Structure formats: C-alpha cells, structure tokens
Amino acid sequence: MMVFWRYGFDATTFRMLEDATGVGAKGLGNVLGDKEAIFVKALRLYRDDRKKALEEDFWPPGLTALKRFLDTLSDPSVPANDKSNVGCMMVASIFELDRTGPQVQNEVETFRHMMLSYFRAALEAEKIEEADAKAEFILSVIWGAQDYLRLKRTKSANRRVVEVMKSTLDAWAKDASSKAGKRGVGPVTS
C-alpha cells in the first residue's frame, strides 16, 4: 500500500513491490495477481484503515468532529517524512482511472461515498440544510487540498484552506441556528 500511495499506480513497478515486500514478482503475482489486482487490494486496505479512523474521528457526528478532521489536513507538527504528507491515496488514484479497470473506479467511488456519509452526518447533526450538496462541496475542497498537499509535501500548506473551510462551517451553523430560532427550535451548537 505504501509504495502505491507514494508513487501511484503507473510509476510503481514490480521491482518496487518486491523491494517493499521482500517477495519476488512471481510470488506476488501467484498470491495477489497482476499489478492492478495488487493495487485494488492496496486501495481496499487504505479505505479500511481510513474507515476505522473516521469512525472514531466522527463520533459523535457534528461540526466539532468535522473541524477536528479538517485540522488533521493542516497539522504543522507532522514530520516531513510522514506518509500523510503525500496526500490521500484515493485522490492520487483519480488521475489514473483512465489507465486502470473498473475495480479501481469502484474503490474510489466507494471511498467517496464513505467520506460523504461522514460529512453529511456531521452537517445533519447540526441541522444544516442541503447537507448532501454541502457534503459534496466539503469533499471537493478537501480533495483539492489533498492534491495540493501532494504537490507541497507538507500539511502546513493547507492551513489557509482549512481556516476558510472552518469559517464556512461556522457560517452554515449560524444560518441553521438563526433559522431554528425563527421556528422556535432550540439553538444549534457546533
């Protein structure tokens, strides 16, 4: 997974996979399949790892959880050699979809829907209207920030993007609270 994450599908060679695993190309191929099959398994592993982290990060769902997640995108304390400084493996894989098969597309879409579900739940917990569209917006911003992170190789490069996104979330929460107050519903907290 780490080799594909750092270099992507196209640039990863069987030699690189051999070096990373200590298993020869024939052994890798016999057990795991061709390069694309190994890539799909790596994407699944990445998704499963992220899902475990998101389950913890987004409990309970709400803007506090979402902001905490955003903060991880710009954490200046992450060492320069940390794997997360190369961005999101799924985002990097998007640029290789035209050179891979439908299983890779399926993994990226499954990951996308998973992320959207956490964002949507956080927004709905705060009674923020148009949660589906706003979750898509958040994902688009985050995926753009992940691509920028891959370019800059440091999480601190995303500091301004995260600040603007958190301000946007605060504005949405304020709007939801204002509308709830007009309807006689209690305040919404973030």
Topology:
Elements: H1 2-11, H2 14-21, H3 25-32, H4 35-57, H5 63-72, H6 89-94, H7 102-125, H8 131-152, H9 159-182
Helix pairs in contact: 1-4, 4-7, 5-9, 7-8
Descriptive tags:
0% strand, 190 residues, mainly alpha
Mean pLDDT: 89
Low-confidence stretches: none
β-sheet strand percentage = under 5%
Report the C-alpha radius of gyration, rounded: 19 Å
Fraction in helix: over 70%
Shape: elongated
Number of helices: 9
In short:
Helix content is 71%, strand content 0%. The protein has helices spanning 2-11, 14-21, 25-32, 35-57, 63-72, 89-94, 102-125, 131-152, 159-182.
Model description:
- The chain has 190 residues and is mostly helical.
- Helices cover 71% and strands 0% of the residues.
- The chain contains nine helices and no strands.
- The longest helix is centred in the middle third of the chain and has 24 residues, at 102-125.
- It is elongated, with a radius of gyration of 19 Å.
- The mean pLDDT is 89.
